[in-house]
Amino acid sequence: MKIKIFFVLILSVLFCGAALAGPGVKDFSNFKRIPVLDNGRLKPLDTFARCLLTQFSGKDHYEKQEAAAWLALLFFNPEAGLKDKIFLINNPDIATALGIPPQQDRRYTPQQLQQDFPKLAELQEAAAKIPEKERSVAEAEMMRVFDNINFYTDLSRSLTVIPSSQDGEWLSLWAAVSTDFGHEQTQRLLMLWGQMAVSYKRGNDTAFNEAARSYLNSVRYALSKADLKKVDKFPLELFYQESSPFTWSIVFYIFAFIFFMVSFTSSKPFWYNLGLVSIVAGFIPHGLGLLMRIIIMARPPVSSLYETFIFVGFITVLLGLMIEYYNRQWLGIVTAAISGTALLFIANKYSAEGDTLKVLVAVLNSNFWLATHVTTITMGYAATWVGGLLGHIWLLQAIFSKDRQVLDKTYKTILGILGVALTLTFLGTNLGGIWADQSWGRFWGWDPKENGALMIVLWTALLFHAKVANMIGPRGLAVGAVIGMMVVMWAWFGVNLLSVGLHSYGFTSGIAASLIVYAVVEIIFLLVTAFKIISINQKKMLK
Fold first, then answer.
1. Is the torsion defined by CA of 311, 315, 320, 325 positive or negative?
2. Selection from 211, 197, 190 nearest residue 7 by Cα
3. Chain-centre distance for alpha carbon 219
4. pTM to 2 decimals?
5. What one-character DSSP code corresponds to residue 108?
6. 278: which residues sit within 8 A by CB, 6+ positions away?
7. Taking 50 as the threshold, does the pLDDT of residue 2 lie above it?
8. Do the beta carbons of residue 320 and residue 335 sit within 8 Å?
9. What Å distances lie between residue 276 and 176, 259, 266, 288, 329, CA to CA?
10. Which of 175, 335, 482, 512 makes the best surface tag, with the fewest CB within 10 Å?
């Protein structure tokens, strides 16, 4: 009992005050690898820190400080971090309501929010009484800020880093002292954590890293075989997080498009070769990033909206490279550059919500069906997207290009891509029906998500029937392909706005306005280009 009281006192000292604090440490290589159980997933502490900072501030680092260094400061010297501007408040009215002067960078310190916590709690309580779907943007933001400051305040007591000796559960430091302290392994882990804290306060890099290394070695003895396999993947996950492969892909895709624009000023093949090399250079980290995610999570990378945008982006770039192989006139390069950049930028929006390597919801927990139905239907999305993008290009070429061969090549490419799209979406929809029959006892139930997939199949099939019946020509097919792209966007995640049906696990709020704006822009584009093409054709007839 005396030893237990001693440990409680030690932990209290470690997490309170900064009177004896030194300059801190700079090497967190071992600290980053410490296992943390968060939201049902065992992850390296560095991933936890990045996700936490992203959740709080919208960035995975604080100023020039890496996430793990910021988290160590929060654990071992919390008083020193009270003036760090880590809390993002998007709505300045919330800051004003709390009596805090609105900041230009929209970020505030823990000290500011903790001082006004009673007022924040009062506003949160009022917002909580409003049904979620009926809350305003400001009320939803209030709830988010309140949850973040609550979690921040409780973090040092709630972080689960100690594997229990009894039932495989993971415990916080305080819970380990109160419920599992009688076990020698738990005592050793607590002692090593205390050594890390003391070394941090003294600014002793060597001692801090040695304590972290000893902690890592000791914690392995308390892990199950399944957890050990996950921990063995931590180095790969840390590399994935630090290398930011998709950011590099975006950079190279943008450069490819820039080289295309520059090519209008010069007909030299130099710019074409640079554009092609840039697409390949972006495609490689794009593919490696997906491969790393597959290895880390041991599943196909299509289980969330974030992952599907990355995967569809990868397939669109692959299709662009295939088009360029046969076309060799920038068409595939432009398609790949625009698609890859746009889809990865959209994915980044979802990465700002926190951990992108989440545990699957129960309904998706099937690697077989993820690898068959979901990958097939999303590849169908990708092909339809590319067809729509090519439709945009054909309409612009019809206005600005006088080369009929170029138009004909683009038209034939649209036909081929739409054929791929129809095949994949039809196959994917049927595979989804088989999965539904196994999971829910019926092949088809007119669920919104099912209807969305069916709409893509029907629309694409309609275009082919209209072409065969000579009801539409190249211009009609291009317009239909653009509309098909709109159908994909609504089927992909627009139906989730309804928040109904057996597929409502993918619900995403706040996207309705973006979809409506997108649809309006596309309609305006189609009206303007169609009117312009008709006007050009009429002038040709008069001549």
1. positive
2. 190
3. 30
4. 0.88
5. E
6. 252, 253, 255, 256, 259, 337
7. no
8. yes
9. 57, 9, 16, 19, 11
10. 512
**31-52 tens-digit pLDDT:** 999 999 988 889 999 999 999 9
- In the chain, the amino acid numbered 201 is K
Cβ partners under 8 Å of residue 466, min gap 6: 472, 476, 480
What pLDDT, on the 0 to 100 scale, is given for residue 5? 53
Q: CA–CA separation, 193 vs 64, rounded Å?
A: 26
Q: Which two tokens stand for residue 134?
A: 């009926």
Residue 76: predicted pLDDT: 87
Buried-exposed string 518-542: b where 16+ CB fall within 10 A, e elsewhere = beeebeeebeebbeebeeeeeeeee
For 17, 32, 40, 168, 320, the CA distances from 225, given in Å and listed in that order, are 39, 21, 17, 11, 43
Greater confidence, 127 or 278? 278
Please state the separation of Cα 92 from the chain's center in Å. 26
Nearest alpha carbon to residue 364 among 503, 507, 509, 508: 503
CA distance 467 to 475: 11
The pLDDT-based confidence of 541 (bands split at 50, 70, 90) is: low
Alpha carbon separation from 158 to 25, 172, 177, 211 (Å, rounded): 24, 5, 13, 21
Determine if residue 359 is left, alpha or beta; phi over 0 gives left, psi from -120 to 50 gives alpha, anything else beta.
beta
Alpha helices in 77-130 (DSSP H): 92-97, 110-115, 117-128
DSSP 8-state code for residue 62:
E
List, in order, residues 6 or more apart from 528 with CB less than 8 Å away.
Answer: none
**Structure tokens, 521:** 């822009």
Average pLDDT over the chain, rounded to an integer? 86
Distances (CA, A) of 357 to 17, 47, 361, 419, 421: 35, 10, 12, 33, 28
Q: What secondary structure letter does DSSP report for 304?
A: S
Contact of 86 with 57, CB cutoff 8 Å: yes
Q: What is the pLDDT of residues 311-347, one digit of tens each?
A: 999 999 999 999 999 888 899 999 999 999 999 998 9
Write the DSSP assignment of 94-106 as a string of letters.
HHHHTT-PPPTT-
Backbone Cα Rg of the chain: 27
Q: What single string gives the DSSP state of each residue in 485-500?
A: HHHHHHHHTGGGGG--
Residue 297 Cα to chain centre, angstroms? 15
Is residue 428 a contact partner of residue 405, using CB atoms and an 8 Å limit?
A: no
**Token pair 């994917």: residue:** 428
CA atoms within 13 A on the CB side of 432: 25
Q: Angle 525-530-533 (CA atoms, 0-180°, nearest 5)?
A: 125
